[in-house]
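Worked example

This section walks through a single chain of length 313. The input is the sequence exactly as stored; nothing has been trimmed or padded.
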Amino acid sequence: MKKKVSELNESDLKPKFVERYKSICPNYDEFIKWSFEFLRRSIRINTLKASVKDIRERIEKKGWTLTPIPWCKEGFWIEGERRDVGNLSEHTLGYIYIQEAASMIPPIVLDPKPGEKVLDMCAAPGSKASQIAQYMKNKGVLIANDYKGERIAALGINIQRMGISNTIITLMQGQWFKNLEFDRILVDAPCSGTGTIRKSYKTINIWNPTMIKRLAGIQKQIITTAFKMLKKGGTLVYSTCSLEPEEDEAVVDHLLSQFKDAKLQDINLKLKRSPAITEFEDKKYSPEVKKCLRLWPQDNDTEGFFVAKVKKV
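Given that input, the structure is written out below as tokens.
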């Protein structure tokens, strides 16, 4: 019988997983404790359709409690007697997007402006793409790309539901983009998802070092392609919901070693953060990776997440 997340314990983890995370996590016991807690529900209010104030009041009148997320002025943790946030009329009408709190960080760090040309290379199902379009105020052009047809369907539905009109949806492998130029690019890369144990038990089942190495190779191809398409002075944000150094700091280190005009930027947000990993197994990474944002589930009661901000100087 399949276990619920709340029923898991350390005995359900693979020995290699335990060994690895004891070596890289500042507080392994806290990581395990928080990884087996239910994830708080959260929403982002869509200011393309209404103000934060109006939608917050509208939802609270229905008996829900909204608590502001410190790093996102449109974001709220939501609690109520019911759990079916997706059945709210505000969701159906595109006034809100159900989005994990840490997932809101990459578009905030990207900081897209109205009128710019922006690329979201791995956009489906559309949480970050719709947030980017929201910050662009539907002005300029956003290319929202993904590589699987079934994922594109969800992306298209969400783009329409949120009232977005400046977005072009494309279907292709991110690493095959070429001959284009963008002001800002988001690479929310396909990853092992080890930061998402709180909502997905299958993450533990499918975890293995071979898969991580394969994904890291794809991630390096994608981030390299993205940087080549970035305008001088442009900003690239690389993010994953993985906690694996090979998918996070190692990928950023690879980019820095390939391009001398790639410079990591500081990320200053109202949240608790953990130190970046500067070496893993037999490899040492550039000291610059200390500027990356590494979030463990216990830091802010969210998913685990990784974000890096790169500028082409």
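What to look for: The first strand starts at residue 42 and ends at 45.
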